[in-house]
Every structure is written in structure tokens, then in C-alpha cells.
Amino acid sequence: MAERSITVCDVCGESAVETVGIRVGGRALNKDLCRTHLQDLVSNTRAPKRGRPRVLAAASSPTRRRAGRTRARKSAAARTTTAKRPRRRITDPVTLQKRRAALAKAREALAAKRAARKAG
After folding, report:
1. Which of 45, 3, 50, 51 is nearest to 20 (CA)?
2. Domain spanning 7-44: which CATH class is it, in words?
3. How far is 113 from 76, CA to CA, in rounded Å?
4. pTM here?
5. With the CA atoms of 11, 13, 14 and 18 taken in that order, what torsion angle do they form, in degrees rounded to the nearest 10?
6. Are 21 and 38 in contact (CB under 8 A)?
7. Roughly how many angstroms between the first and final C-alpha of the chain, as a whole number?
8. How far apart are CA 86 and CA 84, in angstroms?
9. How far lies 39's CA from each of 36, 42, 120, in Å?
10. How far apart are CA 27 and CA 85, in angstroms?
11. Average pLDDT of every residue of the chain
12. Any idea where the domains of the chain sit in the sequence?
């Protein structure tokens, strides 16, 4: 035995042509509409702009904390600055020796590269 479900317009009760999704106050709602009420709804509408919607400070509702989010957000000043923090001084003698050896090796390689270019 087969069953058939018929959707009806939520406004007038005629057979519905389309189900429309509406977002109001952070809630997602669906409404079944017939042809005439769908035309009434669609008239004088515009297409949404691409990208993320701008959030207005006055229109925003209090934000709820999402589950699983543990990191604290950076302040606006911390997000916009691109300057690096200064490095701390190397105080460990072993690390300092390794660093100096690596820099000397890099200088020697650069000098050899420049000499080869000058000779060639």
C-alpha cells in the first residue's frame, strides 16, 4: 500500500508549490506556499551579496558560546599587528655554540657562491 503526502499552503490551504526557508532572529523556519503567495513573497526582493554577512553591533544578539571552543580570541590590536616579537637572548652555551657554527657555515657557503659567480 502506497501513501502520498500533499503539502498545502500555510496561508490559504491550497496545494503548495514550494517550501521557502526563512531565517529570523537566528532561527531557521520553513513555510509551504502556493503560487500566488510565493509571488507575493518574492516581489520586491533582492539577491544576497556574496561573502559573509556584515554583523551590525546594534542588531546583534548576545552570542552563545559554541561547544568545543577553548581558545581565547585575540584582541583587535593583536590581530592587526604584523610586527614580530623580538627574540630572547640565547643564554645556553651549547645552543649558542651551535648557533654560531651554523652562522659561520652559512657565511662560508655564501662567500664560496660569490667567488664562483665572480670567477665565472
Report:
1. 45
2. alpha beta
3. 45
4. 0.39
5. 50
6. no
7. 90
8. 6
9. 5, 5, 78
10. 43
11. 83
12. 7-44, 90-120
